[in-house]
Structure to design on (305 residues):
């Protein structure tokens, strides 16, 4: 009798122990009360990891999480991704955002004051320009996307805008191979700091008229590499670039009323590559017509508070 009871007690304890292990395992899977969750990959603490992820419905990202993107993040046609002010997104090597729907990042265009910046950056501890591929607006034929109050850094092409016209306002684009590339775009590019890139803005030869106004385009290797002479480029501060403007098309280009860091024509000519630079160019190109020039720096250019 004693032996039987002892075995029964041992069996009962074993069952309770197994139940305890199973319960613990389930709690771990459910997060055990933690706010973390799994999103197409994994999440630890407040990091959401996305790998080759395509939106299946509209999404909103907020500053409660840090988002880490590997591979391609796709925003399909008719889908909207909104990234709210204060959010940080890190990108793995060669990661890219491909937009065919609508992308809204940062402070609303209808709000007067800026909220906290959205930061889009490299995941690497020692980042370099070209770490990730940037944001590609892939022939979306829409103008509802915008970026306002956004920092974009360490990308190959921060914003590669093809045949669409998102607004880019009050942003900082720095340490990119190319900050903004405009191909068939009527985008409004206003009040940005475009600094310390290899190329600040590149315009492609199409019959579109992007508006590039009131920006600080400074400390780049090339400030503006221009192949679209329909572009409106005025009231910008173009200073401390190795070349402020490089014209790469056979037509003349008028871009008056900009500040060049000087009012001396000879000095301005040194930071412009056009038909006057016969010792550098290898094909027929036009001339940059930069007069009249601004006599003072535009103090209200660049991002506003």
């Amino acid at each position: 009798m004693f032996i039987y009871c002892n075995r029964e007690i041992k069996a009962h304890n074993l069952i309770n122990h197994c139940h305890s292990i199973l319960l613990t395992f389930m709690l771990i899977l459910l997060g055990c009360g933690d706010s973390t969750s799994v999103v197409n990959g994994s999440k630890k603490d407040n990091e959401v990891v996305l790998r080759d992820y395509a939106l299946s419905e509209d999404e909103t990202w907020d500053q409660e999480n840090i988002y880490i993107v590997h591979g391609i993040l796709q925003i399909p046609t008719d889908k909207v991704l909104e990234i709210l002010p204060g959010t940080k997104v890190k990108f793995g090597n060669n990661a890219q955002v491909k937009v065919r729907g609508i992308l809204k990042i940062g402070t609303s265009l209808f709000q007067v004051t800026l909220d906290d910046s959205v930061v889009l950056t490299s995941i690497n501890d020692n980042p370099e320009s070209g770490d990730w591929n940037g944001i590609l607006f892939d022939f979306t034929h829409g103008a509802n996307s915008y970026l306002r109050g956004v920092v974009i850094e360490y990308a190959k092409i921060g914003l590669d805008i093809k045949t669409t016209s998102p607004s880019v306002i009050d942003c900082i684009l720095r340490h990119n191979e190319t900050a903004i590339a405009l191909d068939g775009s009527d985008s409004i590019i206003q009040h940005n700091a475009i600094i310390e890139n290899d190329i600040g803005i590149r315009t492609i030869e199409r019959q579109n008229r992007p508006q590039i106004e009131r920006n600080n385009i400074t400390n780049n290797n090339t400030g503006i590499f221009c192949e679209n002479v329909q572009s409106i480029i005025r009231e910008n501060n173009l200073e401390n670039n190795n070349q402020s403007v490089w014209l790469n098309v056979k037509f003349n280009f008028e871009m008056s009323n900009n500040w060049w860091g000087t009012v001396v024509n000879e000095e301005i000519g040194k930071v412009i590559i056009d038909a006057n630079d016969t010792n550098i160019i290898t094909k027929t190109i036009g001339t940059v017509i930069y007069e009249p020039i601004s006599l003072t720096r535009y103090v209200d250019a660049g991002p506003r508070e």
